Amino acid sequence: MKILFLGDVVSRSGRIAVKRRLADLKQEVGANFTVINGENAAHGKGITSSIYNELMEAGADVITLGNHSFSKHEILGKLNECPYLVRPANMDPEEPGNCVVIRECQGKRIAVVNILGGVFMNNALGESYPVGERLLNSIDADIILVDFHGEATGEKELFWYLYRDRITAMVGTHTHVQTADERIAHGSAYISDVGMCGSFDSILGRDVDEMIARTHGKATRYTPAETPAILCGVVIEIDDATNRAIRITRIQERP
Question: Which of 69, 185, 191, 203 stands the most exposed, by the fewest C-beta atoms within 10 Å?
Answer without folding.
Answer: 185
